[in-house]
Structure formats: C-alpha cells, structure tokens
User: Fold 6-phosphogluconate dehydrogenase, decarboxylating from Kribbella voronezhensis.
Amino acid sequence: APAQIAVTGLAVMGRNLARNLARNGFRVAVHNRSKARTDALIEQFGHEGEFTAADDLPALVAALEQPRKIIIMVKAGEPTDAVIEELVPLLDEGDIVVDAGNAHFADTRRREDALKAKGLHFVGAGVSGGEEGALNGPSIMPGGSTFAYSALEPMLTKISAHVGGEPCCVHVGPDGAGHFVKMLHNGIEYADMQLIAEAYDLLRHVLGLSAPEIADVFREWNSGDLESFLIEITAEVLSQVDESTGQPFVDVVLDQAEQKGTGRWTVQVALDLGIPVSGMAEAVFARSLSGDVVRRQAAAGVLAGPSSDAKLDVDRDAFIEDVRHALYSSKLVAYAQGFDAIRAASDQYGWDIDLGAMAKIWRGGCIIRARFLDRIKEAYDRDANLPSLLVDDYFKDAVVSGQDAWRRVVAAAATAGVPAPGFSAALSYYDGLRAERLPAALIQGLRDLFGAHTYHRIDREGAFHLDWSGDRKEQPA
Ligand code: NDP
Assistant:
C-alpha cells in the first residue's frame, strides 16, 4: 500500500520523527538529500515499521497516497526554501506540505501564502522536545488551514506526547501561528534556563555550596511547585563528575553560552509588538555577555566587586528557601510576559489562539514541560481574557506571598556582586506592573519640552503642549 506520510530531511529530528510515525503504525516514505542518511535509517531501524526509502523527491512523492502529506525536517532558512522549491512542481492541488523545522513565523506566513496561490496547503508545525521528544512523543504546534490540520490530526496526535491521556498537539491557528508559538516556547525556555542558572550561581557564591550540594537542592525543588523537566536535568548536570579531572562537570565547561537564534527572534518580535518580555530579553543578553570574551577579559580584575565588609550573613536553609521563591516568582513573570506576547501576536495577525490550550500542549514532550502549566490552563479556563497571568488568583497569591523572599534575593545578589539580571528584571516588572504612578509622567514632560511631543492630563481629555520656551502656558495640541 502507498505510504501515508513522508519525511524529507533525516538528521536527528527527521529520522526520529519518521521512526515515531512508523512505530505508531503509519506507513512512512523517507528521503534525505544525501542518501547515506536514508540508508542508515533503513538499515538500523527499518524493522521498526513500514518504511519506503526514496532516493529523490520525485520518488518520495510517487510513494504517497493522495492528498499527499510531506513533512520537511531540514535545516531552517534557505534549505527549507530550496526543498519547497524542488517539491512544489511535483505536487497536485490539495497536497499538504508540513515544515516541522524551526522556521521564523514570518517565513512561514510567506511560504503559506505562496503555496496557497498554487492550491497547496502549507503547515508550519513547531516541534519541541529535541531528538528524544521527536522519537518518543514531542509537543507539536501546527499552524495552517483547518482542512490541512484535520487531515494530519490523526497522525500528529498519535505521535505527540500525551499527558493524562490527552495529546500535546492542537491546531494553533492559521499560517504562522504554530511557528510563532514554538518560537515563544523557546523564548520562555531561554528565560527558564537563565533563572535556573542565577539560582545556581547565588547558591554557589552567596552560600558557598558545592555543585553536588546544589544538585540536591534542585532535586528537592523538583518535588514541589517548580517540578519540571529543566529543574530535573539541572540536578543531573550538577551532579555529573568530569571523568578526566574528577571535578564537577559544570566547572570544566567553558562559561560561554551559545544560541541558535530563537530566543533572539522572540525578543525582536516582542519589541515590534510592544510587549515587554524582559525575562527573555535578559536571558538573551546574558548569553551574549557570557560569549563576549574580549570585554569580559578587559573588565576582569579591573572592575572591582563589593568591598569585603559587604559580606552577607545569611542562614543557609532560609536563603535556599528565598531563592526558591525568587526562582518561582521570576518564572511566573517570564511566562506571564510570554503569554502576553502570544496574545498580542494573535490579535495582530488574527490567529485567535486559545492561550489555555498552548499551556496544555506544553505539559508534555517539550523542554519547558512542567507541573505548573496546569495552573496556566486553569487560569485561562477561569477567564479567557485575563489581562495578565499575574492577576489570576493562583499566580497573584504565589508572587505576593513570595515577594519578600524575592526582594531579599535580589538585594543579596546586588550586595554580593552576583549578577542576577533575570531575577531583578522580573521583580522590576512586578513592581512596575503594580505601581499606581509610574515616572512615565516625567518622560512625557521631557518629550514635550524638547520635541513638542504633547502629553495627556489625568483630569481632562485631549492632548496638550506647554510653550516651554515662551510663557509656559498650556495649549490644546
Ligand atoms: P539540521 O538542522 O542539522 O539539518 C540537517 C538536515 O538538513 C540534513 O538532513 C541535511 O541534509 C538537510 N539539509 C541541509 N541543507 C539542505 C538543502 N539545501 N537541501 C536539502 N536538505 C538540506 O537537522 P536537525 O535534525 O537537528 O533539525 C532539523 C530541523 O528541526 C531544523 O529546522 C531545526 O531547527 C529543527 N529542530 C531541531 C531540534 C533539535 O533538538 N535538534 C529541536 C526542534 C526543532 P544532508 O544530510 O544531505 O546534509
């Protein structure tokens, strides 16, 4: 029988996705630009299901039942366009092309538009969970036409992760919606990892705990509200011992964080949407700073830290508990900001994204899978138009009850000279959000003085301008 679905691009992600499909009983046609990967897949894993190996794209297309469903899993960017260009002339009206790579959602919108004009369906599907997820069940975020999603749904929901019997896959919305949400997922992942790193750094340098001791702290945290994949693997990384030196693994790794770009995209897009995503922005900046070797070397030993009489006297267990609160509260801020950005994009592009459903499909399979995502789902179930997650009862209680601890941690970080940009930006956002009056009033005054940009009053409608260089009388603008 003809194959039900095809995968082209058989590096780690594509190979594992193809195996996942085959293991779930679907007939899969597979192809890769260089044949060696196709051969290796068939040789090593051919017994796992019904595969059809194709040497080129025409053979791949010929192997499929109609309407054809083809998943592209190649390097994001130009390679994806190259594959689409080669594929499109081989297809018939109604066929469905899925890009499961990490495309920028603007590219997905462009590609969807171009393929629609040719009578083809284009689905930009975010896939999270790394190679392990691709094989055993990722979180899948497909965007595109309802028709295309209905055709793919039985397969995608079967191969996705499941939590409580429910698939971690839902139709996110039209065109670029799926890839946008995947990008946001990665942005949140950046923020989460930065906050974890700051918690580690504070425990290490304020309390002087060793890496294995901190691993124990994270292990314990993983049994409470913080329970998540990232907290779990933090304990694992921190307890790893380097074989060649006997040192903690974390101490022999170069402290320069790399990035592939999805965090940066998230921040760039959020800037355009006008949504403050300070948690993600600080995470991206912190990675950039870590990799800025030239400036770090120039400053090391030149820019002094706190004087020795600024020594902190903190109780070990109390401080650990404070850091836990700071971590959780800062994390809630990052998620609140992330969901604000999804809502803003959904409004701007007319995607009509169900925010609660996004939290639900992130509960399993993906890198940010966590217990507290249930809380986000519940918050949006209570009020789909919640202006900020932070004002939902559960989240409000969590940040309000944790705020004293959070403040102590940010103060301790400043006193000890340990950088905590994520914790402090999150706390500033919290204080900014709840402030009755912000100093933005002064900024408006300055703008009016130097640029006649006008201002609004608290007591009367309309825009006004002061004649700053003349009689300083107020005039309606
Ligand atoms: P890579 O991103 O390393 O891409 C390698 C694959 O792309 C190979 O199959 C390669 O073929 C193919 N390729 C590259 N250029 C071309 C081209 N011009 N024409 C045709 N094929 C080309 O593979 P990954 O498996 O790591 O990732 C695949 C996609 O999934 C990417 O978009 C990535 O961002 C995304 N992703 C990756 C995750 C991960 O954890 N790695 C997680 C989630 C998403 P060849 O063998 O011939 O060189």
Q: What stands out?
A: The longest strand covers residues 121-128. The chain has 20 helices and twelve strands. Residues 316-349 form the longest helix (34 residues).
